[in-house]
Amino acid sequence: MKVGVVGGGGFGRGIAMASARQDHDVRLHGRSARTIEGVRWTSSLGDLADRDLIFMAVPSHLCPELSFELGKHLDGRHMLVHVSRGLVGDDLQTLSQVLRQKTPCRRVGALAGPLDADALAEGKPAGVIVGSRFPEVAAAVRSAIGGPALRIYESRDVLGVEIASAMVGLLALALGYGSEYQAGPSATAVLLTRGIAEATRVMTSLGGKAETMTGLAGFGDLIAVASGDDRPEIRLGRALASGMSIEDAGREAGAHIEGVSIAKRVSRFAERVRIEAPIANAIASVLSGELAPGDAITELMARRVGKE
Amino acid sequence: MSYLKRLYEKPLRLPRLSPYVPDPNDPAIFWFNSERDQIVDEVAQRVATAATTREGMELALNDAAIHETRRLSKQRDQEAKDSLGYWRSLARRIGRMSDDEKREALLKTTSRMSRDIAGNFDSRVYKMSQSIVPRLLTGVMRPSKLPIAVRSGARSTAVDRLLTVEGNVERLRDLQKRGTLVYVPTHSSNLDSIVLGHALEQSGLSPVIYGAGKNLFTNPIISFFMHNLGAYRVDRRVKAALYKDVLKSYSQVMIERGYHSLFFPGGTRSRSGMIENRLKLGLAGSAVNAFANNQVKGVDRRVYFVPTTINYALVLEAETLVEDWLSDEGKARYIIEDDEFSRIDRWVAFFRKLTSLEAACIIRFGEPVDAFGNFIDDEGASVTPAGSSIDPAGYVMQNGKPNRDLAREAAYTRDLGEVLLDRYKKETVLMAQNVVAHVLFRRVVERTDGIDLFARLRLRGEVSMSREELRRTVGETRDRLLEMQDRGAVRVSPFVADATPDTLIDRSLRVWSGYHSRVAARDLGVEVTAEDPTLLLYYQNRLVPFAEDVAGAESIAAAREIGAMGVRR
Questions:
Q1: What is the DSSP string of A216-258?
Q2: Closest to B453 (Cα-Cα) out of B302, B325, B288, B310
Q3: Which of A67, A248, B172, B269 is deepest in the core (most CB within 10 A)?
Q4: Residue of B429, B175, B329, B407 whose CA lies nearest to A139
Q5: In this model, does residue B254 exceed pLDDT 70?
């Protein structure tokens, strides 16, 4: 199979390496040249036109423009899979929706779940989930990067997979935040359990299936967060809790973090469609400076306690 | 059995002494009768051979026999007398049948179903309907003019004034020669297929085939026209999986052969008055499959979907529909037998009411899309978001060759469904009644913060708005809608765009009074009262997706509450 990767960051390189290990013809598009064994580098998106399957491994805010450019070279035959954790715009569009809107491709999917770039690159045991309405996309991803150490599950609920993934990012931020305030196991459990309930509400009002939240893209990924995988969202949460500005916290956490603007947009969306989203609201208030870092916890704890 | 009953079971066809030879330029439908038997057989064959294993065949037969026996024993009519025996005997024999016998029984069953579904097309009836239907409708509206209208053969009738066709008519005239058109309109009234058929004829577009519920064939006159104009019969009471397969396959074979088609993706009429926000995609899927199947066979016949909106100032069956939506049984009742559509006095009252209006119905033929949701260029090729043209054949290819993949086509169909929902919003034409009802209903919501919908609907005549404020708010709402129209987010009727807010209000009040058994809103001079919130709700529901966008800052909370009614949960 001819595999293409857009994005030379950790994830893009990891996918390219995993795919090269399976002896596929791999081409990576990135801003600066990289030498990876078995992978050809290109700076021109047009060079990806002959690929069967292309992974988009770029931060979600770059995805609309970049996929539009890439789309100029593609047609109905190509398969496109993204690995971003973000949701775009005030309507919380998922990236598979963006791909369908900005490119002629329809066979699209999302790679999510407890996957880290290092495991991919080094072929350590891990599991991921690929969401796509098209069984052949899941099959292609399996063939492209699957190996003895990587279990690839699939779900038809691509929307659900993407929303779960984004909401877990948000909860990771909340968890990092809480840990700075010495949240113990009990408080952490409450935060994450109520977080799952909140994420499920957002999920269903956007058209995802509630069950997807209990799978690898939701619970699975969240357990990875709680088991202490060191992802940038957690670092960002900690930095914010210590009173840093968003800019400083972002620098501290490294990489571009989807969680920052998502909290605000989820909170606004929830208000619009009249669902409760206290955790997103609290994070959004801290980020916008309406709430002092220490007060978010107090505010959440002061909420009326009801039935589950 | 009465003669009329017989007509219901078997629609009347005109005898033909010599075979009809269509003109080579006629649309495919004119050739239908010569292909009819072939089509019926092909459909029956395809469905019968889809089950290949012994278990598959047995399951299909058992499922059909059980469902049909159950339905017919309840029905106790002529159909039951004719067919119950067949199904009972089949049910008894299935277990003992050899594989060959099963195959044969399957084919016999699918042939029966396919024959029952297939329509007829009689060019004489088509020509007759072109001149008669509008004149008869005119006659219903103005009985005194009937003799003149029929005698003079006048082509410009009251119907033509009532009905406005807008949108991409020119392009469709061209596209219908390049490929197969599949019209997919919104659905709010049983009048839809009749009005749309007339609109196609009036616009120089080819007639279409469509499935009509068997309940519509109960009126012998309508039945005669529908049957002879290519409508195929859909019996929604039949629950057998095999029957649904035959239906989809019939639609697929017809589209593969280039018959322009029509179906309502909403499934049934919108009970709430809302623009469709959920679709039944079975038949849309048959069109996607048809495209793929043709590609595999080496036939490059494009399929063009035409999202169409049918927008009424007054809906014939509004009261029954909205009651059905609000009542719990609404979910269970799929076929309404006893609505205004079946009562001739309601028709007369309805059309009388409409004669006082110009453009009581606006049909908008929206921007056509291919089977994968892409727009179409002037040559009929698919256009990418970046504006270049591509061959849609790529979508049904694997490893460089076209292939069939039902799971893939089903996924394309889901994607297409989302595109259609989006197009419906953008191509919906809002009428004065929708706008005025929305402003009044939003006021009801504002004044009754914190109570549920049903409690609100009981507040008959308790909430009013001063004429002055209503005028101002209708004006503001209209202005925001016009801005949205400029962005391509929605359409408004020319009347809404041009008339003064007072005229919009007066016209709406006039349309509402006198036809429905209840008055939606009442004019009390200095103020206007929301007399029947239920009817207002029905008419304002067209604006649900736009509620937040048309609201000023002071009404945003109520607007959100209205908007949330359209959110899928």
A1: IIIIIHHHHHHTT---HHHHHHHHHHTT--HHHHHHHH-S--T
A2: B325
A3: A67
A4: B407
A5: yes
Distances in Å between the alpha carbon of B172 and those of A47, B126, B475? 38, 20, 35
Query: Residues 6 or more apart from A179 whose CB is under 8 A from it?
Result: A188, A234, A237, A238, A241
What the block records as the tokens of A117 is: 């770039």
pLDDT at B454: 85
Contacts of B398 in chain A (CB under 8 A): 136
Question: What CATH number corresponds to the domain at position A233?
Answer: 1.10.1040.10
Domain match, A184 and A148 both: no
Pair (B312, B197) in one structural domain: yes
Structure confidence by residue, pLDDT tens digits, B552-567: 999 999 999 999 887 6
The residues with which A41 forms a beta bridge, in sequence order, are: A28
Q: Which of the four pLDDT bands, split at 50, 70 and 90, describes residue B150?
A: very low
pLDDT tens track for B6-24? 545 556 666 666 666 667 6
Chain B hits for A75, Cβ within 8 Å: 384, 390-391, 394
- The structural domain count of chain A equals 2
- Pair of tokens at residue B475: 């004006």
What was the pLDDT predicted at A115? 83
Token pair recorded at residue B225: 């026209």
Could you tell me how many CB contacts below 8 A there are between chain A and chain B? Answer: 76
| Spatial contact of A202 and A196, defined as CB atoms under 8 Å apart | no
Burial of A299 (C-beta count, 10 Å sphere; 0-12/13-18/19+): middle
- Going by C-alpha positions, the residue among A118, A105, A95 that lies closest to residue A11 is A118
Residue B59 sits at the vertex; the CA angle it makes with B56 and B61, to the nearest 5 degrees, is 110
Residues 252-281 of A with CB under 8 A from B: 271-274
A153 touches chain B (CB under 8 A): no
Residue type, A17: M
Q: Say if the Cβ atoms of A133 and B395 lie within 8 Å.
A: no
Instruction: Report yes or no: B385 at the A interface, CB cutoff 8 Å.
Output: yes
Report CB contact under 8 Å: B384, A72.
Answer: yes
- Single out the residue in A156, A183, A200 at which a domain terminates: A156
Letter string b/e over residues A120-136, b meaning 16 or more CB atoms within 10 A of that residue's CB: bbebeebbbbbbbbbeb
Rounded distance between C-alpha atoms, residue B541 and residue B437, angstroms: 9
Cβ separation A136–B560 shorter than 8 A: no
CA distance B281 to B371: 12
What are the structure tokens assigned to A302, written together?
Answer: 């002061």
Residues A175 and A177: their CA atoms lie apart, in Å, by 5
- Say yes or no: A138 and A168 in one domain: no
Q: What are the residues whose beta carbons fall under 8 Å from the beta carbon of B465, sequence distance 6 or more?
A: B439, B440, B443, B473, B527, B528, B530
Same domain? A166 vs A42: no
The answer to whether the CB of A111 falls within 8 A of the CB of A81 is yes
What is the separation, in whole angstroms, between the first and last Cα of chain B? 49
Q: What integer is the mean pLDDT of A145-172?
A: 94
Instruction: Please name which of B83, B14, B74 lies closest in space to residue B227, comparing C-alpha atoms.
Output: B14
Chain-centre distance for alpha carbon B212: 10
What digits encode the pLDDT tens for the residues B162-202?
788 999 999 999 999 999 999 999 999 888 887 888 889 88
Whole-angstrom Cα distance, residue A94 to residue A138? Answer: 18
Whether residue A146 is found in the same domain as residue A272: no
In a domain, B469, yes or no: yes
Give the range among A220-229, A274-283, B57-66, B509-518 with minimum mean pLDDT: B509-518
CA distance B70 to A253: 66
- Give the residue-averaged pLDDT of A154-176: 94
Residue B359 is predicted with a pLDDT of 59
Question: Could you list the residue range(s) of the whole structural domain that residue A237 is in?
Answer: 159-301
